[in-house]
Structure prediction request, 557 residues.
Amino acid sequence: MTLRDEVAQLIFISFHGAAPNSRSREYRRFMGQIRDTKVGGLILVNWSNGRVIQKAEPYAVAAFLNRMQRLAKTPLMVSGDFERGASMRVDGTTVFPHAMAFGATGNPAYSRYEGEVTAREARALGVHWIYYPVADVNNNPDNPIINIRSFGENPEAVAAQVKAFIEGAHTDKKNFALATVKHFPGHGDTAVDSHLNMPTITVDRDRLDRVELVPFKAAIDAGVDSVMTAHIAVPALSPPGIPSTLSSSILTDLLKKDLGFKGIIVTDAMEMAGLVKSFSMGDAAVRALEAGADVLLMPTDPEAVVKAVTAAVQSGRLTRQRIQESVIKILAAKERVGLDRKRFVDLEGIGDVVDSPESNEKAQEIADHAVTLVRNGGAMIPLAAPEKACYLIMPESRSSAEGIGFTQEVRKVAPRALVNTWDPTFSRQQLDEAVGRLVGCESYVVAAFASVGAYRGMVGMLGGELPHALEALISSGKPVALIALGNPYMLRNFGGVTAYLATYSTVPPSEIAAARAILGEIAITGRLPVTIPGQAAYGEGIQLPATRPLPANGASQ
Prediction:
């Protein structure tokens, strides 16, 4: 390889999984970056049409990757943020709940199973490298970007789940996938989204050793393949204003020397504001390599990165040996996943791997076991008279499909019960009128969705005038059961509810689990993997047996 070729191997660019027309500008861009620039790999990301996040289709992903692999001189390594399994990015795959739901079950075997299924489905699609598990310890309730992506606030419990997922991803040698822990040295105690600005963690080294670093140490001991950096400043380790991604004190001195990590260090997305607000893309790339990073993920201008890094080598700022150290790691990883023997996806084999009945049943079992009953005033749950309650769905947007699974489960038991959806576009007047029409309800069940996402800058919470509507229901004097589908800290804002359940996820299996729990169809066994300040302590959870049999097709372990 030439120096330019070696530098290009360190760059991973994004793709959406769709198959653009070969005469389109998008396809020509891929041709230029893969055939001419010769980037080393790809990362699958979602795309938005302005209203709804779009996921890829399995066969489209595989077909596109086969075309790109034909263009590449050196086989491409393909990666993806497969949190919640491949379903985070690809439809038609097994839908697992968010990490915090696994934490609530207290059973690392579930994470091991998820690791095995995620690796198998990823490899069937042509993806070799999984950017998961999240090793961040979410001990800040106001964290706007980690939250339910973390297994919880207890370092040892998080470490056990992290270790289990890695073991699962490595179980099947035929479908082996690289696993990644993120976001080093720990993004859990932040209140700023690094997609928007650079957060700062103001704790000392002793605290880092006792909390943040515990899951990372466990991951390294478990043989994790890679570590993803965080665009966060840690003044105890590095000068203020320098993100971990660009800090040799953090990536080389701490991660490599102190913790003994010898695998691949991959940056978090280099397009994020936590990096680009302070550094040009070329300068950031050179600094990241100086700090100890191996893979430069999603730079906004790959060609500018190649030029900047090549110039840094030619000027003596970086050595050719330093570049080759990272290239050797990447090529060895490509060989480890079999890219030297097989780079193309078997399209006909995808349908026999993804979205299996067995894995979906297990994912539902995990969601069922995660449901946590935090409060149960007047023994409201399970509902004694489901058909006399009114059910209110509060999704995150008008165009969302959130609430469909919950509604269908309720209808199986109470087909005539009132189920309404109130979205954030409703005005206060509309909601007041809607509340006024519920006078005949004996009780209220509110299914409120609040996820965590990049570029929001805030913790997921009810939008628009929905908080006002929920407070109006609470003020009615009738029992109100609030189900948090997502952010478990929601109880802080609505402490007057009669009953409170947390599912830690917004996915359909968690909707189904929530409905089953309030109807008494499943035992409630989850325990809080976090503290809800002023409301509930870590580890709390009211345990209840099932009181009503599940429908014949809805068995849960």
About this structure: The CA atoms of residues 471 and 494 lie 7 Å apart. The radius of gyration is 24 Å.
